[in-house]
Every structure is written in structure tokens, then in C-alpha cells.
Amino acid sequence: MKIYIVIPNLFLILGVLFISQIGRSASKSLLSTDPFLGIAPQDENYYKTSSEIFKCKDGSKKLNRAQVNDDFCDCPDASDEPGTSACPGGKFYCRNAGHVPLLLFSSRVNDGICDCCDGSDEYDGKVKCPNTCWEAGKVARDKLKKKIATYKEGVTLRKQQIEQAKLAIAKEEEELSKLKSEEKILKGLVQQLKDRKEQIEKAEEKERLQKEEEEKKRREAEEEANKEKSKAEKEANQEKNEVKEQVGSEEEPMESTHDDKIGVLDHDPLDQDVEEDKSNSVAEVEHTDKSENASPTDGIEQHAAEGKEESPVVHETDLHAGNEVSPTSDQATKQENDVAENTEGLSREELGRLVASRWTGENTGQHTEEVDAVKHDHHESHEETPEDTHAEEYDGYASETDDDSQRYDNDDMEDPVDEDFGEEDHYDSSPPYKSDTEDESDFSDITSTSNPSWLEKIQQTVRNILNAVNLFQTPVDKSEAAHIRKEYDESSAKLSKMQSRISSLAQKLKHDFGPEKEFYSFYDQCFENKENKYVYKLCPFKQASQEEGHSTTRLGRWDKFEDSYRTMLFSNGEKCWNGPDRSLKVKLRCGLKNEVTDVDEPSRCEYVALLSTPALCLEEKLKELQQKLELMNQEQPQGHDEL
Amino acid sequence: MAPNINPTLPLLLLLLLFTLHLSSVSAWKKEEFRTCNQTPFCKRARSRKPHSSSLFATDVAILDGALTANLRQPPPESPDQDQIKPLLFTLSVYQNGVVRVKIDEDPSLDPPKKRFEVPDVILPEFESTKLWLQRFQTETVDGDSGPSSVVYVADGYEAVLRHNPFEVYVREKQGKRRVLSLNSHGLFDFEQLRVKQEGDDWEERFKGHTDVRPYGPQSISFDVSFFDADFVYGIPEHASSFALRPTRGPGVDDSEPYRLFNLDVFEYIHDSPFGLYGSIPFMLGHGKARGTSGFFWLNAAEMQIDVLGSGWDAESGILLPESGSRIDTLWMSEAGIVDTFFFIGPGPKDVVRQYTSVTGMPAMPQLFSTAYHQCRWNYRDEEDVENVDSKFDEHDIPYDVLWLDIEHTDGKRYFTWDRVLFPNPEQMQNKLAAKGRHMVTIVDPHIKRDESFHLHKEATSKGYYVKDATGKDYDGWCWPGSSSYPDMLNPEIRSWWSEKFSLKNYVGSTPWLYIWNDMNEPSVFNGPEVTMPRDALHYGGVEHRELHNAYGYYFHMATSDGLVKRGDGKDRPFVLSRAFFPGSQRHGAVWTGDNTADWDQLRVSVPMILTLGLTGMTFSGADVGGFFGNPETELLVRWYQLGAYYPFFRGHAHHDTKRREPWLFGERNTELMRDAIHTRYALLPYFYTLFREANTSGVPVMRPLWMEFPSDKATFSNDEAFMVGNSLLVQGIYTERAKYASVYLPGGQSWYDLRTGIIYKGGTTHKLEVSEETIPAFQRAGTIIPRKDRYRRSSTQMANDPYTLVIALNSSHAAEGELYIDDGKSFEFKQGAYIHRHFVFSDGKLTSSSLVPNAGKTLFSSACVIERIIVLGHSSGPKNALIEPSNRKAEIELGPLWLRRGKSAPVLTIRRPNVPVADDWTTKIL
Q1: Could you tell me if B841 and B809 are in contact, meaning their C-beta atoms sit under 8 angstroms apart?
Q2: Residue A351's closest chain B neighbor by CA?
């Protein structure tokens, strides 16, 4: 191998030396002897015309032929100096036989750095650039060959995926329309049952009232006797309740304040206890708060009134403090000032952290962690996060819902129309693939596709009920009434499941799965990547998150494809302290597996990841690569193969 | 819900408090810094009435070539009052018009403590320029009962000590017009150290910090008057106008004095007399009538300076006769001694020369460091570095230095690397070096108090840290958390520190690595005013209050010395510092700290850098783009266009900001920023020549207009435009979507638009149309600017590239200019290894001659040629130029003023004269 590398190099070095020798004797500016140096093959004709007059390519000037490549820039478009560095913005072509040709900025010519593997960009003799094209070319060709192999396989995979996707979509569309028509029927049945139920209930009510009337009369005498006493009691109770209510309503705003802070200081160790205590209600409160937050203009207007001196960061925080802490921003400002002036109360370490946090933008709690100088008690509870709590609750709730097959993920669990943040949070911790297996319990009764007779069964049942029950029978037949209620409850539950299934399907099918639906399969998948202490989870069409231990940060919700389906964009992630809302760009490239390879954060809270996938293995690109390889093979210096 | 109420309530309150803390995290925290009123010495000095000083001079004599005297006070009226001991007064005279006046307690009278004199600032060689006074004359100034003593200063100048009332001043011999005076208003006050008496409460408290002040009050204050001055300038560092505005007097709103106290100010505002990162107590007065004078007080304690608006002393009813265009100032310092310097000028360049003859000339920078620097907090890892580096190449944008901020270290332990992010730092630096590029890493003075950190262990065991008031190692809080600070006042510790930069000690460093000193005010997050307590103790029992403003200077010095040692004395250091003090110019560059991405801060960068230049710190710049916040694209482009003319040109950004490398804003904006950077690279030969001028004369690279046009009153308060050298006038565009700019072009000669060559009349204001492509910049008629028009990856590859000379003819068809060249990195220029050419164009002939003294012996040579000579203001027509002595002809044609830059009228161009830049030759237009 080595033998045939060395020989051409030797020739080349000699050649370069020879050229530069001539250059030196010819003039001080060390011109190359080759008047056509740096000219791309497609331009050769332009330069090789025999005329003594050379025209700048942009037509702006006519020159003597001797002014071409004379190391002095004459043409504004740099076309007279393809082989020297005289014109800024010019381009130098190196042939790089054995490798790929290269078009360099002319600023690279004779700058002492070897850019072309054939060394042709450095001819003034100051540096020697060995010809490395054959070696480099071989490496490049091998790489290209591998790439082509990948593409070939990838193109096939992609085709399969597209086929599958088309089938699946058709199936889902069919299911959807079927569900829709079934929904209509079921709706009717439920309505009928409801009417009947209401009739029964009316009858029951009537019975009850009658009974009550009798009862009333019977008791009246007794009551008369006790009247005085009970009145006193009642008043006492009322007062008590009022007190309770007051306490409660005072709690409310505080509650929401706290929730908001969880959003901001997502690592605050104090969250946990409160979070647990509040259990379900937290979700609701959080929910409303965040939706308030979602319209940032409110806050901004408020700040405009507050005075200009404060920087945008203050505003940001004010937005939280102002909106949620107390309705009057004045008060918030006042409190803020109080605290700002009150640094005296802080320990020296707290003060240090506080001041440091101005520059770092980290909350001081986080900083501690980084500095890791001090261990604090809350550290362990810190690991457990609110999301966890939600997750458990949610899983319990989820198991009541049904799902029958791999094709359906847990979409039906979320209300697809309601895109609020709270719901999305639940998502974080119950990943689709997990719920696939867990939620199989009893969706079978509505997932009709395999067994269409269920609807008929219900219809039959309803008919039977309606026929069997005598409406105006008094007293009401208890068992009949219970039967109807049960049927009604079951049917309406089914209806709502069906409706949620419909809307989730509709929601799914609305998505842009790419020009050939090649991204369809991404809908049910999440991709994970571990970088240092973080796990990144990308769920296309849904959301992306960063997990550290048990804490989850949402990097973004699905936004769209960009850059002709070569980039996926997740935006509107969790707000960054002092920064923008988090976002993630996923660059797609051809690969045989769906795999996230690199996650990076080039700017604060703006993430970038790479995802290789067969979906990007395009046939046109394969052809391009094959052509490139052919070209490289052609460009190989003669004789190498023989050697 | 009910059971939840009680346990959550306190938690909620806690969280509420916490959030409010965080919400206070932003914007300038005015209340964290002391005002004059909260600073007893300042408040006291400010409230003194004119002529309250009763000092008078006695025992006037010549001693050791200086005029000496005792300053006494009348005996106290009641025996309770302190008996004031006489103060020692010394006036010495130095060559070139420098007068030094020292006043201190008399050591022979047993003061409780020796007051601090700042060491290692005044050049050792300055002493050798002292004139040994032999005698003094005595005269009686009109109306005085007592005599005055008069000594010679320089041709036409005398210094006068007026005995009673005590006053000292410099005057012109002819006509006896005063130039500068001290204590003309009798505000002199010197709090002598005394033994603490029972019942004395010397403690001072501010924001929960207590300063024990074991030595009690020791402040000094006095008034200084600048005669025939229309404006005063200097005393950096403040973000405010260039011409200093009165801080007291009729019509002045309640203002703070200009404060000199090195502070790390978070999000400083753009118009305030508050102290920032560095302090130079040097003020210049300039007026049309006489010229320029300067006053410098070498004192490192906190200083406050009032500029007194005319009529400030009206209440006292006593007006000095020459109150015409006089400007009075009040200087107040917390400690130290009076060690002051009077500079007589009379020209602006004379004053800066006089000042730098005392504090040192600006160091000659490495050529690469005068090119473009790319910084960000933070370039995260090696891959990031590689990406950014290659993107510059991809977009054909040159840059010379890539910077790494604090996150590159292992837990903010300087001299270490985060090996996860930077596993192969040497390899990374070598890769950059292969493209002629350099790297800078940050090294701050706070050392992490971590037993496993070798530097901390060593500093602790050697007792090298600054001590707190009780004598323990001072423990403050900074980036690494709990930190201590090496006592840089001690030369031994500086020497120890400088060894840490050797390639062996600084693991992962290479010869291509240079240093950035940040946080050296010093910044202490949990200290009073975010700095070190004033009662902390330094080497020799010096209190921090006495040297505070010089701490960063010593740190900068030690680091810079470290790089010199690393390079075996052969490699010029490059160290950027944030804190500074007089003399910092000898050790490296500074920048204006953590500015903000807004238009006002773009504008204020100009007066800030001009002020730094005027006070010796010529190698300075502001963060291009603004450190905090995200600049709008237009602002970023304008900042590049302006920053390209800063002496120190670096893009930098806070880690919360979006990426803002020049190629991230669309093709058009990339082009605009590339063009701005290219302009700087093309002008590097000119800039480097100016750095050499600064290195030999102290005259700054970036200058106020009045430095070149000292008698043009219209320039005196102009701080939107500035000169780069004597040839280039630049004005920033400081507003959004500007359509027009009013640019004042001074002087009787014309100006040529730098980009188009269009000629503009001097001595008038032009309303110019503004395009996005450039900010207004003009070449002054009568000058020659050397350029290199080939853009490379970095300045390193430009070494052998040919030159372009741009000759801008004046009304008599003449012009001149200079070009300085050396190896760009070593100290051999000090031995004469350089080329310094003088180009003169007159009578249609350009002559190149050497400015090197004892030329003939060539220690440095260059093979570079001049490939193009452009002559602006010449009639077209000539076809050839004759080059002698080679007797060759070069063609003359009409060519572009700049290659690749839009269409502009073609200009007369001598094509390929290819004369060696190092040689003597002439080129005559035929």
C-alpha cells in the first residue's frame, strides 16, 4: 500500500518546488507558472480562449490577458485572479485528484496552511503540502460507500414504513368513520335511556314527596315542641361555617402563588411537602394559574405602569409576583423592595449566593447544588417531584380506561382538544410505551373493529328494557329502575369513551406525517438519549423533555417540521430563568434505526438534537451519493489501480 | 383542604420571600452602594466651606533637590481640641513639565501608623528625570501679607508655594497666568491619625456589614483648579459623558460626586457618576485659550471627586480674579497620603506624555491581540469550540482569538479544566494554533476554599491570603462559593502567582494560551458593596481601604509577569483585566465590563473608551453586542461597525443570551458584520502603528477630536465621534433605523469618506445619509493610511501579504503617514528590531524613508511589498509612475477604493508598484 502513496507524493513535492523556484525567479510576488491555476473545469473554456483581451465575468472590465492571475485584483467579481489571493471573495479550485475537488476562498491561497489535499493552494514555497488525496480520498470513498450502503438499506426500510403507514392510516380513517356512525346510534340509545331514566326518576320523586308529606304531618307535633332549641343550634352552626369559609378563601390565593412558584423554582426542595399534601386539588389550581401565565401580555401591561427603571428580568418576576401573589402590583413592588433592602438578614453565604445568582440567573438553591459546598436536608425529598405524584394518580385512573391494542397509545386518556399544560405534565411521567402494556385491561368492549356485535347487543338490551318496563306503574319497580340506571351509566360511559377515541383519532390524523406519511410511525414512539446526567426523551408530535433523576423539564411541545422535513421543532417548553422558553430542534438524517445521537444546548435553553431515521433515507439523495462516488472514482489519478 | 392549611402556610410564606429575593435579581442595585452621604468622609468633606483651611507653610527650604516646608495650623483656641502636628510638604520638579507635590504626616513625630503610599506604580526610571532644584525665589503676591516661594519647572513655567494661606500652583512665567492650583479655595483637610480615646466610636456600618476602622478617621480632601479650561475629562471609570459634568453648583441637580472605587456593578446604567471596575485619579483640563493641563493623585483608597459648576462658591463671597474659564474640583479620599502630580501640557498630547512618563507607557501588544476576539460565556466544550472556529472559516470571517469563560474550569478552580467538557485542551489549542489562532482562558483572583485544591492548600500553608480584621484568612463568596484572595500587594506572592502560568504548572496550557483576569476589583458577592471589607488586612499591615483600588492592578501585574516568565521573556503577554489603576496600561488591556445590549450602552462605550485612552489605558474596548440581553440584529450590526474601531475588539455575551456569532442573523447581516470585521483587518497595519505610537508617547490609539484639533471648541464636548490616530474620524450610529447622521468634521482641511472616497469640507457639520452598510468614517486630508487588503483566516496569515497605501491629499497636494512593523510578538523591537517608515507625498512624489534611529543596522526585515497606492484628491490623467531607485515604471489606472465593496467612483491607483516596504524609495506620478 505505502509504496504507491509515496511515489506520486515525491513527484508532487518536486513539482511544487520546481514551480515555486520559477515563481521566485520570475517576480517577487511568487506567481505560479500555471496561468490556469485555480480555475474550475467548467470555467476552463472561459479562460482558455486565445484572445489577448480578458473580460471580467461580470462584464464590468476588460483586461490584458497578462492581468489574469498576476496577483493583482482587477475584476470586482474576482474573476481575474482564480489562482491567487489578490481578490477578496474569490474562489480557488483544487482538483484534488483521487479525492473530491474543492472550491476554496481565495484567502486560503498561499496563507501557509494546506487546504487542498493535492497541495495546490500553497505554491509560494513557504510551506510544503504533501499530496494526501489518495489516502484521504480512500478514507472518504470508504466512508461514502458505507453511507451509500446505509442509504440503500434505508431506502427499503423507508418504503416499507411508508406502506405500513398508508395501511394504518387507512385503517384508522375507516375506524374513525365507523366510530362516528356508531356514535350516532349510541347517542340515540343513550338519549332514550336517559329519557326513560328521567321518567322513572320523576315517578320516584313523586312517590318520595308523597311519603314525605305523610311523614311531615306525623312529625309536626314533635317539631313544634323542639322548635326553640333547634333554632339556637342552627345559628351557632352558621357562624362556624362562616369562619371556616373565611379561612378557606384566604388560603386560595396563597395556594395559587405557591403553585406558580413550583413552576419557577422547579428544583426548590420545599415544594415537595406541600405538593403531597395538596394532592388532587393541586392539579386544578396549577392548571388555572398556568393558563393565566400563558398570556404574557397581562404582565407586560402591568409593568409598563410600574416604571421604566426595572429591567425586563424584574418584569418577568413581577409577572409572577404581581399576578399571583397579590392583585395589586403596587403591593408586590413594595414587598419586593422590602426584601431587596433586607439583605442584612441573610447569612454571609446566603448573601454570596444571592449576589452570584444575578449573573448566573440560577436560583440560589440550584447554585448550592452546583457548588456542592453544603449539603442540605431537603436534598432527598428534592428528588421526588410533583410529576411523580401525578403519575401515580394518573396511572390509577388510567387503568379504568380501556385500550386494546398496540396501535392505540394512551391518547384517549388525555383530552385531545384541551391542550393545557397541566395535562401535558401528566404525560411526562406516563410514557406511551409504558401505558401500552398497562392499559390493555378492558378496552375490548368498545374497540369494535374486531367484534362489531357489541353495539347490536346494546341495542337489543335497550329494546328489551324499554319494552319490559311499564312506565306508569306505581309504585316504581325498584329492580327495573336499577337496571335502567345501570344500563344508562354503562352506555353513557361507553359513549364518552367512544367520543374520546374519536377525537383522539381525529386529532392524530390531523397531523402532518410528511409528504409520504413517512413519519407516521413516530406518532407512537418516543426516543431516548442519555447525555451525562440527563436523559432526553423525544416524542414526536407530542413533546420533548429532559429528565434528571425523577425531575422532568419539558423542553418543548410539538410544533412542526421545518427545513423540508429535515428538522423537527418542539417549542414553548418550560420557561427558562432569565432566558427564553425552552425549545428543541431535532435535525434528522438517514440511518437504519430511529436513534437520537446528540443533544446539545448551544444557547441557554435552546436545545439541538440529532435523530437518525430511515425516514430520511431518500432515494434522490442515494442517487446523488452514488454519482459522487462515481465521480471520485473517475478522478482517481491514473495508474493507481494498476499499481 | 382544612388540614393542609396550617403546615403549608409558613412554607408558602417562605417561598414567597424566596421568590421576591429572586425578583430583586436584576438591574442596578443602587441601594447596595454607598452614596456620598452614607460615606462619612465624603459627607464631611463636601460640607466644608471654602477657605476653612487655616494651614500655612513654614520652614521653607531646599532639601535633596526639592522644595520642602512644614504645614502648620494656628494653635487650637481651646485646649480640648487636638493639637495638630505639622505636615511635611515636598515639591519636586521633573523633566518635561511634571511637578510632584507630596504631603504626609511627619514620621519623626511618631504617628500611630505609617500611612500607605502606593508602591510599584510609578516607573522606577521616573525618579531619574528629577530636576535637582538648587534654589527658590521669594516674592509677595499682590495683597498677601506673607511671601510665596517660586521654583523653576520648565521653560516658561514656575511652581509657586504660597505660604499663607497655604496654596500651591503652577503658572506661566510670562504674565504669571495660573495653569493649575491646589487649595486655592482653602478646602484642604488632612485627618491625622490619632490614638483611639475612650468613647471614640470609629466603627462604620453599612447594609449589615461592620467596618471596625481600627485606625479611625484618616481622610484627605482638597480643591484643585484648572485654569483656562472649558472642560475637564478623565477620572475613569464611569459610564457617563466624556466631558465631565458639574456635580455641584448652581443649576446642578442633586448629584453624587464622581466616585472612584473599584466595584463589580451588576447591570450598570449608562449615565451615572457611580464607580465601576477601575479607578484612575487623573484629570485633564482643556480650553481653547491655553491648552491642556493635568492633575494626578496617586492614591488607592476610595476617592470621590466633585466637579464644581461655576458659581459654586458664590456663597463665600470670595471670587478669584481669573474666574473666567476656570474649573474647580474637589478631591476627597478616605486614606493614604497626598502624592500628586501637576502636568503643564500645554498640548493634549503633552499631558498624556507627561502622565505616562510617571505611570508608564502602554505595553506594545501582540499583533494578534489587536485583531478580532470571539468570546461568550460560555463556549461549552471542545466540540463547541471546534464548531465556532470552523463556522468562521465557512463564512470567510477572520478572527484571532477564541475565549473560554469560567465554565471551562473544574468547579471554578482556575488553572484546571473540566475534563468532561475539555478532555484534550492542548490538542484543542494546537488545532486553533494551526490556523494561527490563539485561545484565552479566564483566571480570577478568588481561590476556591477546597482542601483538595493544590492552589488553595499552598496559599493557605504559605499564608498568602488576604486576612480579615481578626487576622484569619479572609473568606468571601464568589463563583466557586467560599473563596480566599491572594494578597497581591506582596511582591513575593505576586512572584509565586506568576509561576503558576508556566506550561508545567498550568496543566493543559500551551504557548498559544493567554489570560483574562475578571472579578479583580475584587468582586466578593457577600462583601460590603460586593467587594472586600475595608478592614481586611494586607501585607505590611496595610488595610484594604488603603489599597482597594489597586488590588486588581497588582493581580493584573502578577498575571502579566507570569506570561512573560512562561515565554522566557521572549513573548509579549496578553492579559485582559476588568479592574485597573494608574499603570495598568503597562500590563495589558481592559474592557468596560458587563454592559448591556441597548443603544444607550453602545453610545456610552465611546466616551468610556476615550476616557480610558486619555488616562493611559489605550488598549481598551467594550463588549461588542452588549454583555447582558439580546441585541436586536440592527444593534448588533451597528456595534460591530463601531467595535471594529475600538482598540480592543471583542464580541462577548452572557450565558442567558441567544447565540450571536456573526453568521446567525441571515446572509445580509452576516455580510455586514463580516465587512465590519474585514475593515478592522484591513486597517491592522494602521492600528499596529498607532499602538506603537502609544507605546512610545502615551498618545492613545482612539482619541477625542480635540486631541487633534485642540483649538476647535466645537469638538470639546463631542463624544459621539472620535479619532483613530490622527488620520481617521469615526462616528457611531446610535439609534435604530437612522436615516441621517450629523457629523462634525473639524479643521480647515477636507475629509474623504473612508469607503467611497467622496470629499467633504472640514470645519462644518454635515448631515449625511446613513446606510446599513457602514457608520460614518473619514480619512483626513493630508494623511496616508497603510492597509492590507487581503483577508485571511487570522492576522497571522497576513504577515507576508502586500500593503496598500491610501494617500489623502490636502489642499496643497501633500500628505504624510507612518507604518510600523515588527515581528508582532517578541520584545526584540526594544532592541531596535523593527521597521518604521515615514511616507511623505509632495510635488507628485511619494517618498518612503526610515524613522528608525541609527538605521543601517537591520535587525528586522520584511519581504512584504506595496502592491497598490491609492491617491485621493489627485486629478486623473497620469498613466505611469516612476519608481526609484529601481528605475521601473508602474501603471496608473482608475481602480476601486476597496475591493469587493459595492460601486463607488474609481480612484487613482498605482498598480503593482511592488516596492519593498522595508526599503527607501520614491514613486513619482508622471
Answers
A1: yes
A2: B526
